[in-house]
Design a protein that fits this description.
It is a single chain. The protein is α/β, with parallel strands linked by helices and 253 residues long. The chain has one domain: Rossmann fold (3-Layer(aba) Sandwich), CATH 3.40.50. Helix content is 44%, strand content 14%. The protein contains eight helices and seven strands, in the order βαβαβαβαβαβαααβ. Strands 3-2-1-4-5-6-7 form a seven-stranded parallel beta sheet, with helices on both faces. α1 crosses α8, α3 packs parallel to α4 and α4 packs parallel to α5. The longest helix is centred in the middle third of the chain and has 29 residues. The chain is globular and about 55 Å long. The structure holds nicotinamide-adenine-dinucleotide. The site of nicotinamide-adenine-dinucleotide (NAD) has 28 residues, from α1 and α4. InterPro entries: KR_dom (IPR057326), NAD(P)-bd_dom_sf (IPR036291), Sc_DH/Rdtase_CS (IPR020904), SDR_fam (IPR002347).
Length: 253
Amino acid sequence: MERFNNKVVVITGAGSGMGASSAQRFAQEGAKVVLVGRTQAKLDATLARLAPGDHLAVQADVAQREAVHQLAEKVLQHYGQVDVLVNNAGIHAQGKAHEASDETWKKVMSVDLDGVFYCIRAFMPALLKSRGNIINISSVSGLGGDWGMSIYNAAKGAITNFTRSLAMDYGADGVRVNAICPGFTFTDMTKDMKQNQAVLEKFYDRIPLGRAGEPEDVAAAIAFLASDDARYITGVNLPVDGGITAANGQPHL
Ligand code: NAD
């Protein structure tokens, strides 16, 4: 099944993890994929693993307004259209709010929030033309609180509600806007946790499906929401979390 034949899909943070995995998924399903990230070598490595096609790797820091503007110009010059934007680039911060520096706060907000805003603003004219759609990568941390991650929770919570309002504003124009809320997933972002058996056991105790997510689990859900199979779905924040958000918070007895 090739759901994305003749579609141009832009993915930020495509050099690793869920971004790289969804690039593979979209390419397998016929898309022309634009890989966006800060490190050319990582983008090239992802590019080399894609099913053959007219793909493009563009170095850009999504937190830089001008870089995103140039990215959109380059993509439109090359393809003349954009059908799907996956705002996946993100960073994480740990610790209590009163101990965090201005730099930590600003860095998380600049990538996780400004980056999403800049990309949506830059690509929306093309998406309005193609009646395309946007997938934001929020998090279960954008649906509820976590211990020790409040800055990340603030950023991802904003993405969750940004997604809902964008869906309302652009629905009549035929542009769908949805978000994926991954739970604990094995990627570069969680590589230290993967090495820590005690942490893993705590997670597995709370995940009904009993395992961490893999980037491919998330990529499959991204591809679904971006495809015409989801043509009547907009404004959702879909947990892809092994069931972790099914709980009401009471202890696992
Ligand atoms: P990852 O670190 O492998 O991927 C994030 C990518 O974004 C990296 O390639 C990184 O280089 C890139 N990036 C960071 N800042 C950037 C910038 N300014 N400009 C361009 N690219 C930038 O981790 P991942 O888990 O695949 O993360 C993907 C998304 O999933 C993130 O938004 C993250 O917050 C979210 N998420 C992850 C988990 C998890 O458990 N791994 C859970 C929920 C949500």
